[in-house]
Write a structure and sequence with these properties.
There is one protein chain. By secondary structure, this protein is mostly beta strands. The chain contains 1 helix and 20 strands. The strands form 3 sheets. The chain has a 9-stranded antiparallel beta sheet, with helices on one face. A hairpin with a 5-residue loop joins strand 8 and strand 9. The N terminus is likely disordered.
């Protein structure tokens, strides 16, 4: 599949299912977390899922104070995550995408109103800017930006992305996608969906598209460090240095090489995530780690 087709598969498949709210709890006194299980409508009665529990108060990488970075925090250090070493970092200096990254282009299949455009991906002022605006070169449609770190595919690892949005409109999406485009699996560790007051984390697996999803409330116009630690026996989602959800079901954990994607998605044809004015998803930096123990 091409890049547009990849994005289409993610968008259309992730909307299948019914909601079953399992538990609501508060972590750190600030983040309100709701865990939900989506059961595919493909004809089975239950889905093997992990039961969410209160996460331990472990601090994960959030960044280091830096006046040079737009968000006020620079990338975390080489050994900021216990048992891991940093293997990749970029804070988007210069005026073009770093080596190993590429832009999405084209119409996502399954989303006839959607459009990715290379001109909507900008590197400037120490930021990756994914910009949504009505593009006169494409019939004045809303066109969004998206990128993939297609040159780096690995099994397991930890990923941290510092980002924010400038306003309501398209979804902010940060995810891991199978390098060979054989979907599922998929790990979405920041997918804002319909608004700017919170986000979701979702894992897709199995031929029937089993899904487990969690949601968290936090203002997305503020800078946040979103993270995912993908290990052989767990997937841990972090926000601003704290774990807020975890998946431990063995079948749900991908064991194939995956790549990091960052993108905006407008879903006007489906009645949500539809822009009314130009907006941007801003990324200050990306840091990635591999296990050493």
């Amino acid at each position: 599949m091409d890049r547009a087709t990849r994005a289409a598969a993610k968008s259309s498949a992730s909307r299948i299912g019914t909601w079953d709210v399992r538990v609501t709890f508060v972590t750190s006194g600030v983040l309100i977390v709701v865990a939900v299980v989506l059961i595919s409508s493909a004809g089975f009665g239950s889905s093997p899922t992990s039961t969410p529990t209160r996460m331990p108060s472990v601090t994960y990488p959030v960044g280091s104070v830096s006046l040079k970075n737009p968000s006020g925090l620079g990338p975390p250090g080489m050994h900021a995550l216990a048992g891991y070493v940093r293997t990749y970092v970029t804070d988007f200096r210069g005026s073009r995408l770093p080596v190993g990254w590429e832009s999405f282009t084209g119409v996502p299949l399954g989303d006839p109103s959607g459009q990715f455009g290379a001109a909507h991906v900008v590197v400037a002022n120490g930021e990756l800017q994914l910009n949504t605006w009505r593009d006169p070169t494409d019939h004045n449609k809303w066109v969004t930006g998206g990128v993939s770190q297609s040159a780096v595919a690995q099994v397991y690892g930890a990923y941290f992305v510092r980002s924010r949005v400038t306003g309501l409109g398209p979804s902010e999406v940060q995810l891991l996608w199978p390098a060979d485009n054989s979907w599922p699996p998929e790990i979405d560790f920041n997918e804002s969906g319909r608004g700017i007051s919170g986000s979701t984390a979702t894992v897709h697996w199995g031929s029937l598209n089993h899904i487990v999803q969690y949601s968290v409330r936090t203002p997305l116009v503020a800078w946040h460090t979103w993270g995912v630690i993908w290990a052989p026996h767990s997937i841990t989602f972090t926000l601003d240095g704290h774990a807020w959800a975890e998946v431990t079901t063995g079948a749900a954990i991908p064991r194939v090489p995956m790549t990091l994607d960052l993108e905006q998605r407008e879903m006007c044809a489906f009645g949500f995530s539809c822009p009314s004015k130009p907006t941007s998803m801003l990324v200050d930096w990306v840091a990635e780690y591999q296990r050493t123990t």
